[in-house]
């Protein structure tokens, strides 16, 4: 029902735009702003009778374009109205369906563009899931059994605190000074982080499986259950 209202409104706006376009194109071009004409001075002597007669005879008749423009506008409006009346009910339904389909496609395209723009930005810290074999966990167990491993991934840009800002400033300042470069060369392995990291805040209690020799194992704190910026 909302789409039909929008189509009706579109028809009304189109008709109004067409009417304004006709008014603009058929308006007389000889009209000008009366304020631009210089005012007549009171000290100018009145013209003589001979000069007034000659000016009257030399004066051309004023054009009647306004009347003709009105007639042309009325003719075009009648033609436009007749064009819509000439459509059958099936043709009108087809036209409206085409307009509705175009509007829906435009809305879908705009939604898709917004989604792509949102995907280009940094993804926040969140919980993800992947299926792996126990051997692929890298814990030393030989088992082809498949388990669900949940992990944390994402950016923590909006979770920075004053501590992180100070640490970033210290590293940048030390990197731009001789003293900072000497200290950095002496302690490359002790480089502090200046941004929070996406880490698990809770773990699954246990993960059970059989190895390739049918031996049963239970391990703890392997899969994440909740994530956060720490």
Automatic annotation (TrEMBL):
Gene3D superfamilies: Cystine-knot cytokines. Pfam families: TGF_beta. GO terms for biological process: system development. GO terms for molecular function: glial cell-derived neurotrophic factor receptor binding; growth factor activity; receptor tyrosine kinase binding. The keyword Repeat does not apply. One of its GO terms (cellular component) is extracellular region. PROSITE patterns: TGF_BETA_2 (PS51362). Residues 105-230 form the TGF-beta family profile domain. Transmembrane segments: none annotated. Belongs to the TGF-beta family. GDNF subfamily. This is TGF-beta family profile domain-containing protein. It comes from Cyprinus carpio.
